[in-house]
Amino acid sequence: MGKPMDVDVDPKPLKRKGSPSGSDDSDDKLVPKVFGSDGKPFVNPGDQTVKESFNAKAIAHSDKSDLPKQKMPHRYNVIDFFMVDAIWHEKIGEDTGVKFRLQKLDLSKKSWWAEKGSPDPTLCSERDFDLTPDSHTCGTCNTTNHRVYRNMEMCLNNECPEFWKVNGVDPPETRELDPNFLAWRQNYDLKKHLDLAPHELIPQIPDITPENHREYRSGDKAKMGIVCSQCGRCLPRIKLNGWRCDFSHMNIVSYYNLENSESRDNDTGCTWSLLCDPDPIRVEGLIDLDSLSRFYANPHSDISGEAITKSSDYTSFAPYKMEMYTIAGVGTVTHFISNTDINQNLNGPNHLFESFQINDLGLRRHRPDKIQDNTASAVTNQFLVNIGLRYQNFTSLHFYETHRDVRLAYARLDWAIRRVVLASRIQYELPNELSIIGYVKNMAMEFHDDGTVGSAIATLSLGERATMTFRMKQEYYYGCRNYNARRELKDKFDGNLLTKKEYDDQRKEVCKKAGTSPVCLTIQLYHGHMTVMNGTDIQKYYEHCVTPDGGLRFAVTARHVPENTVPREDLSKGQIELDVDDFYDGDPLLA
Q: What's the predicted TM-score (pTM) here?
C-alpha cells in the first residue's frame, strides 16, 4: 500500500473549532481555541452536506509546521489545492474539536515540496480508487464513521454517550492512524473542482490605473505582496513607489535543497518591477486645509502626584503657535503648530511632502540582515531610511548622499531644537542623525522609546494627521503610583518594625503589576507640525506611540547620537554642512 505517510495526503487538522493556526509549535499538542458564537463548533461532521460543500482549497503551511517532512523555503508556503474528504470530532484534552482529512486534488503531479530524489507519484491509472477505509457503526447512536485510528473502533459523534470511548474508556493519548485510512484516495474531477475554486494559487498582477492608484500608493493595497510575473516569486512591498524583484533562482534552490534545482545557466536574477503612478499625492487632496491650524492636546491624569502642566506661547515663535508640556522632574514636550502660510511657503512642508514622494530617498521596508528561522521574507512595518550616524542597527546614508530637500527638513528640525534647548538652558547638541519614516494605511508605530540619544529629539510631520501618545513605562509606573504606600513601608523598615524579608515581600505586593500604565499625554499632529522631546529622562521613564489617521504620512526625526556608540569609520556620516540657502529661521516674515 506504500508508505503510511504519503506526500499527497495530510491527515492532520489544519483547523479545529475556529482556530486556523494549527498545533502548538513547542510540543505539537492540539489546543482548541474558540467555538462559534453559539458555543458549538463551526462545522458538524455528521452533516454530509458540509463535506460536499467544500470545494478545492488552497492550503498554506507555516515553516513551523512539521508537515510536510521538508524544510520550507519561506515563512508561509502555499502547498497546493486540497479536498476535504473526511471530517470528525475528537476529544482534545477536556474539550472537543474538529479534525479534517485533506487530499491533494491532483494526484498525478509530484509535489513541489517532495524530498529530493523521492519517487514520482503512482499513476492514477494504477491506483486502486475502490479501496476505502474501514468503518464502524456505533451500537448506541447508529452513526457510521471511518476507523481513523489503528485497532480502535469508537464513536466519533460528539452527541453520543459513547463518544470517544474504546470499550467504555478513553483511548490512549498515543495513537496511530489506521493504514487504510491513510492509504485511501479519491479520484476527484480536476476540472470540476478547480473551476469551482474561489481563488487562483497565483493572483493576477494588479491593474494600477489613475482611478485606483491611490489605493496602491497609500491605501489598503499599499502593503500587500504580489507574485512576480517573470519568475513567480512572492514579492513583499519593499519600496514606497511599488514592487521590484531581485530574486535569483540559484540562491534559493541551493540553500533549501529543493526538488527541481537543476542548474540554470546565466542566472543573473530577476529585474521585473511594477511601479505606481509617479505623480505625487498633493496635500490639498489629502487633508482639510481649514484644519491645519487646529490643535487638540489632552494631558491626562497626573502621575505619581505630579501633574503634567501646559504652557502656551503664541508670540515668541510666531508665526508658529507653541504649546509646551512639562513633566515634572523629567523633561518637556514642545509642540510647534504650523499654519497654511507656513506650509505653503517656499521649501515648506507642502513642497517637502511632494518631494519625498517623487524623489528616491532610500525609503524601504527593511529585511533582516541574515536568514534566521526562515523569516527572510519578514520586513519592517514602515518604510524608513536612516541618514547620518547609525541608529537602531539600520544601515545609514551620509548626509551628502541625500537629496537637498532632506537637508531642508533637517534645518527646520535643528531650528526647533535650538529654540527649545536654549530656552531650557541645556547644552545644545548638533543633530547628527536623521530618520524618515513613511506610513501608509494601517501602519503605526507602537509604544517605544528612542533609546540612549541626546537630550532633544525633534520630529516634523508631513501629510496625514497622526496621534502621538505618551505613557510611563510599566516598570516605573507601578512604583510611582503607590509612592505613599512604599514610603510607609520604608519608614516601618527603617524603624525596625519590619524584617528585610517582610519589607521586600510587602513592597513587591504593593508594586504588583496589573494591566498597562495609562496614557498621560495625547497630541494631535497635523501637516507641518513639529514636536521636540527635551530631556533624556523622557526616554528613560516614558514611551510614546504614533498612530496616523490612515493616509500617506512622513515623519522626519532628528537626534544626536553619541559618537562613542558608533564605529569610528562611520563618524563622517554624521557630518553635515548646510548651504546658506538651506538654513531655516522660523519664517518670521509670515508672522
A: 0.73
